[in-house]
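Practice problem 4.
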């Protein structure tokens, strides 16, 4: 037994140890990088100017105020025929303005259309919901198809009705296209502001060779009528001279220098429009005079 055990032990010690290979490393699979979660664009908001003009009580009140002032002024002039129209004569200047004589011509009042007698609610809704740079094709489509999506400016219907009862012809002078005369007349009349007859009581861009300038059309109107009042939302609704290359600061100054300053509220009536147009220009140097700038004083902690 002892011999057998020794022999077995010898055999055990004689065998080489069994080498077990380690398992191969498990490859680490890298997940592909995930793109960042998309950030939803901010929901469109109504611009402040639109909030004011189309939605605020203040915007309504200032329009009512302008229309009431206009009709009261015209009523006084009808009783005492003025010598001159409120339309500037050809070749005049803002510094020394001259006006077209009235003679015995019948009375009229001349108005811009967009944001003066009509609020373009449909177009401005589209613009607020889908902000994009101005596109002439889009505006032309609006002129052609948007007649039912407008509203009268507060106070305009009552004012134009009173003017007509006073024997004053209401004439529209707008930069809407002459090619869209029919839908423009439909928009005006559908809002309760008509009648509007192209070439008689409605004048449009393209009626002459001056494009968006209105002085030529005003001259045609003033040759036929004694114009007692004009209303608009841009200075160009009163004279193209305001848009003759003037920078914002001198353009603003031109409104407050006599004798032009005396026309505001006395023949020339401005309606509010903080939404678009020639008024919305100017950088810091144009808007904020250097001697009127303020900065909060530094605080000193104790």
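Answer key:
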């Amino acid at each position: 037994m002892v011999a057998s055990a020794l022999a077995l032990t010898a055999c055990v010690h004689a065998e080489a140890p069994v080498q077990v290979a380690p398992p191969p490393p498990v490859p680490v699979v890298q997940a592909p990088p995930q793109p960042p979660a998309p950030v939803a664009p901010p929901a469109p908001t109504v611009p402040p100017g639109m909030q004011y003009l189309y939605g605020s009580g203040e915007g309504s009140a200032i329009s009512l105020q302008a229309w009431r002032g206009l009709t009261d002024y015209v009523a006084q002039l009808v009783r005492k025929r003025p010598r001159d129209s409120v339309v500037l004569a050809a070749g005049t200047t803002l510094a020394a303005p001259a006006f077209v004589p009235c003679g015995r011509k019948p009375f009229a009042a001349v108005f811009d259309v967009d944001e003066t007698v009509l609020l373009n609610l449909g177009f401005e809704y589209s613009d607020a919901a889908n902000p994009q740079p101005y596109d002439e094709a889009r505006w032309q489509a609006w002129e052609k198809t948007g007649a039912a999506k407008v509203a009268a400016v507060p106070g305009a219907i009552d004012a134009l009705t009173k003017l007509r009862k006073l024997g004053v012809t209401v004439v529209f002078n707008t930069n809407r296209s002459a090619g869209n005369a029919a839908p423009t007349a439909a928009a005006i009349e559908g809002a309760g502001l008509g009648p509007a007859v192209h070439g008689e009581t409605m004048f449009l861009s393209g009626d002459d060779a001056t494009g968006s300038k209105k002085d030529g059309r005003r001259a045609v109107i003033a040759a036929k009528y004694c114009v007692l009042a004009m209303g608009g939302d841009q200075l160009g609704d009163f004279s193209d001279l305001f848009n003759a290359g003037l920078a914002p600061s001198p353009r603003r100054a031109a409104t407050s220098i006599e004798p032009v300053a005396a026309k505001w509220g006395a023949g020339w009536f401005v309606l509010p429009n903080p939404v678009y147009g020639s008024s919305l220009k100017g950088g810091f140097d144009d808007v904020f005079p250097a001697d009127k700038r303020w900065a909060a004083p530094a605080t000193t902690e104790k």
